Amino acid sequence: MKLPSLLLLTALFRLARSQSFIDAISAFPQLSSFASFLNNNTTYAATLLNVTRSQTILVPSNSAFTEYRNVTGHSIESLGPDTVQRILQYHTLNATLKSGDLAGGAAAQRGVVVGTQLVDKRYNDRGKWGNSNIKSPGQVVYISPASAGKTRRSLELATRQGSATTTVGTGAGSSTTMNIIDGVWDGGIFQIVDHFLTLPTNCTDTMDDIGLKYLTTALNVVNETDEWNSFQGVTCLAPTTDIAQGTDASSLTTVLSSHTIRGPQYTTVMQDGQTFLSDANTTITVKIEKDGTVWFNDAKVVRGNVVANNGVIHVLDKHLDLDLQANE
Ligand SMILES: *[C@@H]1O[C@H](CO)[C@@H](O)[C@H](O)[C@H]1NC(C)=O
Ligand SMILES: *[C@@H]1O[C@H](CO)[C@@H](O)[C@H](O)[C@H]1NC(C)=O
Ligand SMILES: *[C@@H]1O[C@H](CO)[C@@H](O)[C@H](O)[C@H]1NC(C)=O
Ligand SMILES: *[C@@H]1O[C@H](CO)[C@@H](O)[C@H](O)[C@H]1NC(C)=O
Ligand SMILES: *[C@@H]1O[C@H](CO)[C@@H](O)[C@H](O)[C@H]1NC(C)=O
Ligand SMILES: *[C@@H]1O[C@H](CO)[C@@H](O)[C@H](O)[C@H]1NC(C)=O
Ligand SMILES: *[C@@H]1O[C@H](CO)[C@@H](O)[C@H](O)[C@H]1NC(C)=O
Ligand SMILES: *[C@@H]1O[C@H](CO)[C@@H](O)[C@H](O)[C@H]1NC(C)=O
After folding, report:
1. pLDDT of 1
2. Domain count of the chain?
3. Is-contact 210 173, C-beta < 8 A?
4. Atom of ligand 8 nearest to the CA of 279
5. What is the C-alpha separation between 32 and 127, in angstroms, rounded?
6. pLDDT at 155
7. Per-block average pLDDT, block size 10, for the chain (328 residues)?
8. Ligand 7 binding pocket mutation candidate from 204, 217, 227 (most atoms within 8 A of CB)
9. CATH code (residue 180)
10. Residue 179: per-residue pLDDT
11. What's residue 12's pLDDT?
12. Boundary-marking domain end, from 137, 168, 193
């Protein structure tokens, strides 16, 4: 008799929690599509809200639904239950993330990287979590500062008016605006996003997506494309200058591996003066300026923390000079 009643209690608890979430988002007219989406199919509500710790759900707005349909010509549901569930898991941040966590300090200058519930290897093949400087079993999203130099102001505005926005970097180099409203439900917090998050793709596809075609070409030249995509947990430093220029094929391999660090290393938690060993056994030294700008040796990060299924890509303004990173 005890077991059924326990099961019943758990089911009731789940129901109450999911009702709490649906009630909470129903207070926002711009979230009515998502409420309808969950009401239409309780399986999705069960997936989304099946968590024990306090979470932050990034709720897609009505325009996220319309835009998705506009751009792809089909509804999000038509992706099929497996993919939809993965997307919902990616929308669930495994932490309580409020406006206060994004304001001030390193978070305001360099943004934050947060783990999600997305653990499927296809989208999260980052190796042992101990290899990364962000300990998360699930794939991550990168939340960049609202806008350089103005972060604090717009976040203060958020606290006052509940309308500040910031950017969430997700898979395939895509991003979405996040409206920080600090919505509350029984299982945590919710914030609003204007796009569905894009599931992460492999390293070279992601490089192509963010316009680094010459780098994927260079990897093809030395036949390392599959190797890079099969690294479980990697940091790719990706210069915007053509890495292959003036380099013969034999040294291209060394140049490429001197831009590779094992384990996904996110700039948001790096320390000034910290060093990493590249795959070519050269030393890469991190410099962090007062305004939050990050450098690797003499190259500046122009776009950090682009999420790939097997790691992270930091785009640099130039390639690392091998002579400058000789072994200590
Ligand atoms: C929910 O189902 C109704 C009726 O089938 C449909 O009109 C509506 O578009 C669905 N909502 C979403 C968000 O899919
Ligand atoms: C909820 O999560 C547990 C453990 O993570 C899992 O075993 C169960 O199948 C999940 N239930 C649903 C409805 O997704
Ligand atoms: C979707 O397309 C319609 C018609 O082209 C347009 O009026 C609307 O603004 C679009 N909505 C979004 C969110 O892109
Ligand atoms: C609800 O989602 C499940 C998979 O999670 C799917 O099998 C089922 O067909 C869906 N039901 C409706 C009414 O869309
Ligand atoms: C969520 O965070 C908790 C506590 O840090 C951790 O134990 C758990 O494995 C995490 N889950 C995922 C899917 O990352
Ligand atoms: C390219 O590398 C793969 C292993 O990643 C290997 O199997 C293949 O033979 C190589 N091709 C050439 C042309 O060297
Ligand atoms: C991933 O990488 C391989 C090359 O290693 C490529 O052929 C493949 O199409 C890529 N994309 C996906 C989604 O697997
Ligand atoms: C780097 O050093 C390690 C350990 O000393 C060694 O096993 C590895 O072969 C070296 N790699 C290169 C590219 O020299």
Report:
1. 46
2. 2
3. yes
4. 13
5. 38
6. 33
7. 57 72 94 94 82 89 92 91 94 91 80 93 90 94 66 32 50 76 91 90 89 89 90 93 76 90 95 95 95 94 92 93 56
8. 204
9. 2.30.180.10
10. 86
11. 63
12. 193
Residue found by looking up tokens 């056994």 in the block: 281
Is the CB of 119 inside a 6 Å radius of any atom of ligand 5? yes
Looking at the domain assignment, is residue 198 inside a domain? no
- Which tokens is 1 given? 């008799």
Cβ count near 156 (within 10 Å): 14
Q: Residues 187, 51: contact at Cβ < 8 Å? A: yes
* pLDDT at res. 161: 28
Q: Is the Cβ atom of 32 under 6 angstroms away from ligand 1?
A: no
Instruction: For residue 243, give the 3-state DSSP assignment.
Output: coil
- Give me the half-sphere count of Cα atoms (radius 13 Å) on the Cβ side of residue 55: 23
Residue 226 structural domain: 203-325
pTM: 0.87
- Burial code (b: 16+ CB inside 10 Å, e: under 16) for 252-272 equals bbbbbbbbbbbbbbbbbebee
Q: Where are the alpha helices (DSSP H) in the chain?
A: 2-26, 32-40, 42-48, 62-72, 81-90, 99-102, 105-110, 151-161, 203-209, 213-221, 225-230, 249-257
Residue 305 three-state SS: strand
Q: Are 66 and 197 in contact (CB under 8 A)?
A: no
* Cα 169 to middle of ligand 8, angstroms: 33
Nearest Cα neighbor of 183 from 24, 14, 23 is: 24
